Amino acid sequence: MKKDTRILSGIQPTGKLHLGNYLGALKNWVALQDEFPQVCYYCIVDLHAVTAPYEPKELKQRVFDTALDFLAAGLDPDKAAIFIQSQVTEHSELMWLLNTITPIGSLERMTQYKDKKKRHADHINAGLLNYPILMAADILLYRATMVPVGEDQVQHLELTREIARKFNYTFGDTFPEPEPRLTRGARIMSLTAPENKMSKSDMERSYITLDEEPESIKSKLKKAVTDAGTSGDLGPGGQNLLTILEVIDPEAAKNFENDAKAGQIRYADLKSYLADKLTEYFGPFRERRQELASKPDAVWELLLDGTQQARRIASATLRDAKKKMGFI
Ligand code: TYM
């Protein structure tokens, strides 16, 4: 089996991406495309996005907005293939094949499924349960060896490995077992309820989007929950702000951490420093995003190009998998 490095990851088109998406995944995607050019596949997973209630008229715009975030964050179509999942129909077909070897019990054990089942008790469709099989298809179609994601996706990746093992055992060696690649920012928490992860499905005050206006960054951080722990302990809210700062300004984060250890941290100072740093860090991002938004044709063109690159690999893998399963 070929074990050459191949990288795949995906993000749902939720509209504008937030700091968790960036620090947990997208920032790493950019680093990996530079370290491993020509073997990265980054995908906007619109088929996953329709498992929750949504407005069909808005889906295309959400995909476009996600593409703008990808490009403004530094993804480079000369180094990585950037594409839309639903345009490469092999994803759905491989998913069907993998359906037949995935135990329902494994799907029912997924934490995200259990959470969603609780939150959307009136909208539990089969897609929500089978969601991780589509994710496995996304990954295995490219015979990916490395998958840069945040911590919340690690369990899904374990299942992908289980599915790959089962397929290989049953039909012969076909798929490598992919490894997750996590970063320091793999678990960014909500600003309003720091015991939960930052998420777009939560209230607007709980997350910061990548193109957030400076005034809004300041006011959201100002109101961020930072219940102090015992002396020397930051508590989850303060620790979260420090984790965010650590990724963009490690030296300053160290100083605030020392202050905290000495019981002398001032949260107001940490918040206002972090607001300034985030504003500065995402300044060029906001400019690039605006510029790209004024050239929609070029952006769609580039996605089409990425789709063609992806399809070449995807169709060859699907053909191989079907042959191994005995199809003509
Ligand atoms: P999604 O769209 O929810 O999130 C996209 C990426 O952002 C990471 N992430 C976070 N990281 C740190 N802190 C947070 N608060 C935070 N919130 C989100 C996620 O871990 C993810 O890496 N099922 C996936 C999408 C997917 C996929 C794939 C990923 C579909 N197919 C194939 C990898 C490979 C999802 O819903 O991610």
Structural description of this entry:
The chain has 328 residues and is mostly helical. The chain folds into two domains: 7-186 and 296-324, Rossmann fold (3-Layer(aba) Sandwich), CATH 3.40.50.620; 204-285, Orthogonal Bundle (Tyrosyl-Transfer RNA Synthetase). It has 14 helices and five strands. Helix 8 (154-171) links the parallel strand 4 (146-148) and strand 5 (179-181). The longest helix is centred in the last third of the chain and has 29 residues, at 296-324. The two termini are 22 Å apart. The model has no long low-confidence stretch (mean pLDDT 95). The structure holds tryptophanyl-5'AMP. Residues 8-12, 20-21, 24-25, 45, 48, 135, 138-139, 147, 149-150, 152-153, 185-188, 197-198 line the site of tryptophanyl-5'AMP.
What's the SSE blueprint?
Layout: E1 7-11, H1 19-35, E2 40-44, H2 46-49, H3 56-72, E3 80-84, H4 90-99, H5 104-108, H6 111-119, H7 126-140, E4 146-148, H8 154-171, E5 179-181, H9 214-222, H10 235-248, H11 250-261, H12 267-281, H13 283-293, H14 296-324
Parallel strand pairs: 1-2, 2-3, 4-5
The protein binds tryptophanyl-5'AMP.
Tryptophanyl-5'AMP binds at residues 8-12, 20-21, 24-25, 45, 48, 135, 138-139, 147, 149-150, 152-153, 185-188, 197-198.
